[in-house]
Amino acid sequence: MASLFAIRHAAHQIRHGGVIVYPTDTVYGLGCDPMNASAIDYLNTLKQRDPDKGLILIANKIEYFNGYIKKLLQKDRVKIQQTDEPTSWIVPAEESTPFWLTGNTQTLAIRITQHPVISELCDQLQHPLVSSSANPSKNKPALNTLQAHRYFQGRVHAILITNKKHSGVPSKIRILENDTLLRA
């Protein structure tokens, strides 16, 4: 697992507009501060990604999404927090949530994680991270540090490592309102 020093360094980079690579529950992710428009632009450039697409936010605590999403019913909070497998939920966004996160919709994708590296990183930052797979468009997501280095070495501000094997299967995406499965 990434050392506490490495996680603190990554948090410092994020606070100063950096984009990092980090392990998630499924693949390596590319992330930054969701409120930093310049960091989001750079992330989209690295991925060769359409900036009009919405982004996923990831955190270890549902409270970190306050201010980004509308208040959820208790049953919905429980559903999101107790999902057994990595699932991103499409939920109603606050009106103040930036368009670069929502993709100009009224919704936002969020995911709760139990991954220890992301959990510590979010606790250091006290907010969620942008979570996009660590790969340029049309390439497979990085499943290990070597792939992440090949894709982004010298172009990201930190790469956090883990010894955990990644499944390579992206998270499911569900609409909270009606439990519709958008991606299995």
Structure notes:
With 184 residues, the protein is α/β, with parallel strands linked by helices. The chain has a single domain, classed as DHBP synthase (Alpha-Beta Complex), CATH 3.90.870.10. The protein contains 6 helices and 9 strands. The chain has a 9-stranded mixed beta sheet. Helix 1 packs across helix 5. The protein is globular. The two termini are 28 Å apart.
**Terminal Cα span:** 28 Å
**What amount of the residues lies in strands?**
15-25%
- H and E order: HEEHEHEHEHEHEEE
From the 3D structure, determine the CATH topology.
DHBP synthase
Radius of gyration: 15 Å
What's the number of structural domains?
A: 1
What does the oligomeric state look like here? single chain
Short description:
The chain is built from 6 helices and 9 strands. It is of the alpha/beta class.
Helices and strands in order:
Elements: H1 4-15, E1 20-23, E2 28-31, H2 37-47, E3 56-59, H3 74-81, E4 87-92, H4 99-102, E5 107-112, H5 116-125, E6 129-133, H6 145-152, E7 158-159, E8 172-175, E9 180-183
Parallel strand pairs: 1-7, 3-5, 4-8
Antiparallel strand pairs: 1-2, 2-6, 3-6, 4-5, 8-9
Defining key terms:
184 residues; alpha/beta; DHBP synthase; nine-stranded mixed β-sheet; 29% helix
